[in-house]
Fold:
Amino acid sequence: MKITCALVCILLWAPVAAFAADTPRTDERDTDTKTLRVFIFAGQSNMVGSDSKTEDIKHYPPFAGLDMPQQNVLFSYNIGREDKSTSNGWVALQPVHNVVGPELSFARRVSQNIESPIAIIKCASGGTALGDDWNPDDPSGFKLYPLALELVRSSLAELDQRKIAYRLEGFMWHQGENDMFNQTFKPAYAKNLTNFIASWRRDLQTPDLRFYIGELCTKTIWGMDNRDNMHAIRTAQKSVADADLLADYIPTSHDAVEIGGHEGLHYHYGTLGQLEHGVNYADAYLRTIGQLPATVRPLKVWPYAKGSPVKLFLLAGHRNMEGERAFTQDLNKLPGQELLAEDNARIAFKYSLGGGYKTSQGWEPLGPAGCYETFGPELSFGRALQAKLPGNIAIAKFTHSGSQINDWTPQGTTAKDCNLYSPFLTFIQESIRELEAKGHPVEVAGIFYHIGENDIAFYPYRKEAPIWLQSTVLQSRRDLALPTLKWYVSQQPPPAQEGLNRIDITANLTAISAVDSAFVHLKVFDLPPQPEKLVLNTPGVIKLGESLAQSYLDHQ
Structure:
């Protein structure tokens, strides 16, 4: 991810030179709380908000209330393909036809952190390509570039008529899925995106307009059987952001993705993912202007006596180990779980989430640390161990919910930017060194890995997952010089599906444990009922942590 902090605010029709990158801008206009800040949102289906439902927002506590209009935010839109939905002028920001777009959470997050009023202009249409529909020079298909340009110009003209002072503040772009299937458009994506950005700056006479380029949705079937295509577009987008001081690449692969029907995994974020998607854009913008709120969770007093030994527990995995749908607000509704929401300063906790999207500031107290007021099984895991295990325990967690098991293998895949083995190994080694530097003999108690949820739901990956995992296990022991390092591999019930059932992944994992005494296969098949396929909610994540802890205690 490239994060730069050059100047983004500019007065419309009045170009301003950009400040140096990597420094949050300091501009007197940021103290201006009167001028309306206008943001443009554009792209294809994952910018539209496809496969989301307004009524589902109530299931996600951090986003409660976003089903209602935000009266303080102006909204102008043209959304859709053949049957377009248009606002015909400015209205209050709200869901359009029961669909949740990233602009909803973006607006609230930004409004909570700056005093200036904001407005959003949105033009998005599913199944469209940068190579033709969005082509500034030769638009074809749905001819979205001229359509979006006219929408922006007419919306700004209305502000002029209403004598509302404004400035264009940023352009949020999420698109690329269609270009990756076109052998002409795919290799030209970086060139086309560069031209697209330059055209907007030229046509709006805003040479310093900042662009925020959203990562494609990789935690899906497309992220598995179209890895090379997705990687090609992702690489192109990153190269554009790297070359443009006023463009940022916004990772999204740690965001939630809803599971489709009988076909298995889908390729849209769905309701929760869209809401998180908007927060990503908001945080990137707030970081640019130096207004991103800091979350500080210091471990004020080191919990272990100097020279005392520490058992280090390493947690690793994907969406359920990350805690995609476990919300801290739910803990107060679950009898006996309220205290999990509080920091436990007796256990030192270090983490890297989303493949490095969010990392701890050194060692922190064990507590909720997810990206969106979420938490993982480490909370109940730590509580269960602390109740039964004498001595010092520390927990280090490395997750990437947008990854698959082959991303964790020593050999990796052709999607090089997704290869996790080396960063995971470095994370482990650094955790050990840091504890040793504090004077503690360290015992690595084991790696607790929850097998990839997506991998067990897609036939080619389900077939290879045990082989991939075994290669990671064996190589990690060699590279860490811990030949008897235990791996506790937990597995939730695999989805039953015609064709998929031909691969008995449970039996294949059990077979590894039969020949490897340091490979503990834990079948977590007694989870509470779950509302979503594959994805654990708050009670499920708590149960997973308790089961992992009990497995460790049972094997002492």
User: Anything to note?
Assistant: The first helix runs from residue 45 to 48. The longest strand covers residues 70-79. The mean pLDDT is 93. Residues 28-288 form a domain with the Rossmann fold fold (CATH 3.40.50.1110).
